[in-house]
Write a structure and sequence with these properties.
Distance between the termini: 40 Å
CATH topology: TIM Barrel
CATH superfamily: Aldolase class I
Oligomer: single chain
Number of domains: 1
Strand order of the largest sheet: 5-4-3-2-1-9
Number of strands: 9
CATH class: Alpha Beta
Amino acid sequence: MSAWDSLKRAGVIPVVRMDTPEHAVPLARALVRGGLPAAEVTFRSSAAAESIRAIASAVPELFVCAGTILTVEQAEQAADMGAEAIVSPGANPEVIRWCRRRGLLAVPGCATPTEAEACMREGLELVKIFPAEILGGVAFVRALAGPYPGLSLMPTGGIRPENAAEYLRQKNVLACGGTWIVPEPLLRAGAFGQIEQLAREAAAIRDGVLRETEKSAAAGPSRA
């Protein structure tokens, strides 16, 4: 399965800050059991690289992304540890080009149409919209669909259970990222059963939108 398809299949991507690599494998297994087969491990802690290595080795069914990648050096470290996609808060051309040479999916963050076009010129068809809610939320995502019909988005930042479905309903949204699925206090406490339940609830949101889409497609175009 391609990186693109893996993200689409997951629909909701937990964004995780790891404090200790020892939690990486039980966390990954909890997410998979809960129905979320992808996660983004952010490079906001010293445990990130080793956590990615542990997940890639022990739980290969979880598609693991490296997040908050700011430099080529970080991207290379993450890739060497087993990261299957590189996610950034901004659009760094050096990181994008390195990923393309390495054959890795790069998902750079964009906050403006200008940045989106710059990423498209680099050959990308998927970008992260960050911080999504501050930028205008679903209305901003919907507005980008008009001028950029071939560009898919992964909104992150301010996504919650209350608004995740509305993001996923947008035709240009491949997946969305969220921190609510793996709250840091639960992760620090090793409360993997509770995290699994949060993952299951997020997967139910994704599946509900999928059922809506399939029902709408089966019904065909509405008649005036």
